[in-house]
Specification:
217 residues
């Protein structure tokens, strides 16, 4: 009888504990984005109010445009290098939910940015720094001010980015996610993300939030 009661209690408590753990990971990830956004806010005034043009780092760290999803390579290793004096802890660059997920082993999700240092990697994506093309595409932000980023993104008419009204509408950094509406996504990660039913994102005005996405589990 005692064992049966314990089993019933465990069945009731384990889902609640899993939800609590997931919520704590989501909040920790949002905190990472807040710190990354603050670092960029400190970087820009000292650098002519422009983002760096580090397409060289994009290439040297291993630019890999995917034939599945994402369609380019938004991995953020270059950003971890640029902001290394402002953000000294490698842990800031990884979503804690991804660290305990099969997605960590996916090359699309992880990028090492310091050779020989296994703890120096990022699991975040920076959508608007996803190609090292020359010239810089309208929907990429290399070397641009925030105002130019917004105006160029409007001109690009990118259906994924929409038509932003200002920095508050522009997704800057996101957790990796793999929509179930993309037929080329591998079955084992179809509809998967680090967080259930959506992903965290940092916007160009430095606010961060959780975005629900019906294409994700």
């Amino acid at each position: 009888m005692v064992i049966a009661i314990i089993a019933i209690l465990a069945a009731l408590l384990l889902p609640a504990l899993a939800r609590s753990k997931g919520e704590a990971q989501r909040i920790s990830c949002i905190n990472n984005f807040h710190q990354i956004g603050t670092a960029w806010a400190l970087y820009l005034p000292d650098n002519g109010e422009r983002f760096p043009d580090r397409r060289d780092l994009k290439n040297s760290l291993g630019y890999h445009p995917w034939s599945t999803w994402p369609p380019s390579d938004p991995r953020a290793g270059w950003s971890a290098v640029v902001l290394s004096n402002l953000l000294t802890s490698p842990a800031i660059w990884s979503c804690p939910a991804i660290l305990t997920s099969p997605l960590l082993a996916r090359q699309e999700c992880t990028q090492f940015y310091r050779p020989g240092q296994s703890n120096c990697f990022t699991t975040y994506w920076f959508w608007r720094f996803d190609r090292p093309d020359d010239p810089v595409p309208l929907d990429d932000f290399w070397g641009k001010s925030i105002a130019t980023c917004v105006s160029d993104l409007r001109l690009a008419n990118n259906p994924q980015a929409g038509m932003p009204g200002g920095p508050t509408d522009v997704q800057f950094a996101v957790d990796p996610y793999f929509p179930n509406t993309v037929p080329t996504v591998a079955p084992e990660i179809n509809g998967r993300a680090g967080h259930p039913n959506g992903y965290n994102t940092l916007f160009l005005d430095n606010h961060a939030t959780f975005v629900r996405d019906s294409r994700l589990q």
